[in-house]
Design goal:
The longest helix is centred in the N-terminal third of the chain and has 30 residues. About 75% of the residues lie in helices and about 0% in strands.
Amino acid sequence: MQKNSKRNTNSSISDIELNSVDAEKEKNKSQNFVEVLPLEVTLKIFSLLDIQSLCRASLTCKSWNYAIRNSDSLWKPPCLTVRAVCPREIDDDLESGYSWRVILERNYQKSKVKHKWLSGRYSNICSPTSLPEKIMYPMDADTWGEILEAELER
């Protein structure tokens, strides 16, 4: 009788351990759709995000980061939006063979500053000390030339 009770106790403990391991595996699978869904579906989901959300999503975990960083198609639409402000810079980077993600990294901040300049945001600044340092981005001579032309036309 004692052997049977020991066997039943061990058996029920093993069942509980196996069930908890299986439950943990299922829980992890349901939490990370990147590892469960086909890549095309995952990329479609990520393509619905704006650029800030996409960058934040890439910080979520290693599998999301890998999927987002290595999918050039996710970076092309926001990069083409930046191209509206910085066509020369984007075209030069494309000719140089950079990926869409790298092109976006190289030109995103510049496009924001350039857009503000071209839209007249900084037209009333009287001296270099009046410029907001934190948002300024180093720009090349051609970009400053475009900004100067826009200012002269105003």
